[in-house]
Design brief:
Length: 344
Amino acid sequence: MSAQAPAAIFDQDAVRRAVDTALTDFLGLQCREAHRRGLPTQAAQALSSFLESGGKRIRPILCVAGWQAAGGTDTPAAVLKVAASLEMFHAFALIHDDIIDASDTRRGQPTVHRRISTEAAILIGDLALVFADELLHGAGLTSDQLRAALPIANTLHADTIYGQYLDISHTGRPPANAEQVLAITRYKTAKYTIEGPLLLGAALAGADPAVYSTLSAYGIPVGEAFQLRDDLLGVFGNPDDTGKAALDDLREGKATVLMALALHHATPAQHHALRRHVGNPHLSHADADQVRSILTDTGAHAAVEEMITQRRRSALTTLDTASLPPHITAALRSVAFSATRRTT
């Protein structure tokens, strides 16, 4: 009897290490090229330090998962560079987001604009956006792959920025309409965190429409649940775990489903307290505790937890009926849980 071949597995840690190597090599090359041309190397070095400071690499991991979901084998260097471009775009988004939010910490360390200056951080974020594009175009893709990938990458980039614009348009006075806020969540986070990377990887492998449909049906609810969890962590999370200050989201007055539900169900006194405290840049810890109590007493906290559960269940149901490689189905199940039950 011949030995049975071992079942394929999707090694997320191996993908993470390979992407980190691709980013390190790329930024090392950029620093050397800047030095050769007599340009300042500090910007690329600061960007390299930011990327080395942490991060889950969920977007590159999902890009590679999308590649294999559509029939791609192994992980070619070109696919890894495309995956790395997503992490570079994420760095751009985070650096600029921290400036917009006036955040002091990210991943437990001072944000780029606090370590250097706001002006420099804007330019470093801009450089990350340029580098993301360079990684994608210089990945060594075939003409067919590039033709399939560019519309998805461009939509991912634009939707993220549109979502951020929608977000800041409500900052300081969040609406009481949960569906309106959920639309912000979908564009700002769900598409570029989960769905977009999966579709981008699948495009590189020449996916058929059924694969795209399955990955979207999985990716949107997981992406929304990811942001819903982030909203809860921004108010109720432990700063030692999240790496962000406990009062940032409340002081900024972020438009979240959590806050929209609380405002919708609040008594007149609770509504007045929320409007007084949320968005106050001088919010005290005692005031924040009052807001947290209202978020709990109105049922908003529990309702968001249920929304997360429902979306995770929807994604898992999609996987149950999908015709994806077994090792990718297992990996996506793992991501569905880790992305929605996280504490960081």
